[in-house]
Design brief:
alpha/beta, seven-stranded mixed β-sheet, TIM Barrel, 38% helix, 10 strands, three-stranded parallel β-sheet
């Protein structure tokens, strides 16, 4: 399996605090069956400014410790970029990192506030030569209130990454209900751990898989955990299924 969203790079954001913590979590990931991981520290202007060059140096330092710790996972560079009016410039000036050197860019939104110019910013990402990948939309209030907004974003060329933890209630009931709706209606293209400090997702992966298989089949699970992410590593095009709109009725939960 391939994890495209992690905060396992030590000492750069709110994720792993030190090298030992990074290596411990990578061992848990390996035991869970992950073979490739993209390290995606936050890039938030004026807060976590993990730019391309500084991130590259930190990743090379971490890679140098893998062999001695019996870790065979392949590590790749990326960022989780917080949306801003500067996102086009950040991409064009090679300040932020795309996923594994591909054309795919992982970005996130405010959890509680809807961005009024979101469509324009998505266009900026695309004009900058990138394919936008939206991180964990099931956690955003405006998506929880109207999950069909994801179908509209997909129609504009956005791909969707949801968190494994959402299926087991890590982010609350609303995120849990929302990811189920997205999974059932072909509105998820990647699953990622978004692992920060404790590797909780990796150590609970068997339980997570059982929960996911209540709503998708084995083939779809392979697609969301491995096959689609392999297209990122290969920097080629992902063919997606058309999403279906969620119908609201008296039994809609």
């Amino acid at each position: 399996m391939i994890d495209i969203h992690t905060h396992l790079l030590n000492g750069v954001d709110d994720g792993a605090e030190n090298t030992i913590e990074s290596l411990t979590n990578l061992k848990l990931a390996q035991e869970a069956g992950f073979t490739d991981i993209i390290l995606t520290p936050h890039y938030i202007e004026d807060y976590y400014e993990n730019d391309y060059q500084s991130t590259k140096i930190k990743i090379e330092e971490l890679k140098s410790k893998l062999y001695d710790n019996n870790i065979s996972i392949k590590l790749y560079q990326g960022n989780e970029v917080y949306i801003s009016d500067s996102i086009g410039k950040l991409i064009q000036n090679n300040i932020v990192s795309n996923l594994a050197g591909s054309k795919y860019l992982l970005f996130e939104l405010p959890q509680k506030n809807k961005i009024l110019n979101l469509d324009n910013l998505i266009m900026e990402i695309k004009y900058s030569g990138c394919i936008p990948v939206l991180a964990h939309p099931e956690r955003y209030t405006f998506i929880q209130q109207n999950p069909n907004e994801i179908a509209r974003l997909i129609s504009k060329g956005v791909l969707i990454q949801s968190n494994y933890g959402s299926i087991i209630g890590q982010y609350g009931k609303e995120a849990n209900k929302t990811i189920i709706k997205l999974l059932k209606n072909n509105m998820v293209h990647f699953l990622g751990s978004d692992t920060h400090k404790n590797g909780h997702i990796y150590s609970n992966f068997n339980h997570i898989k059982k929960e996911l298989l209540k709503y998708i089949n084995e083939y779809k699970l392979l697609e969301l955990t491995t096959n689609n992410a392999m297209h990122i590593l290969n920097d080629d095009v992902i063919k997606i299924q058309e999403p279906t709109l969620i119908k609201k009725n008296w039994f809609f939960t």
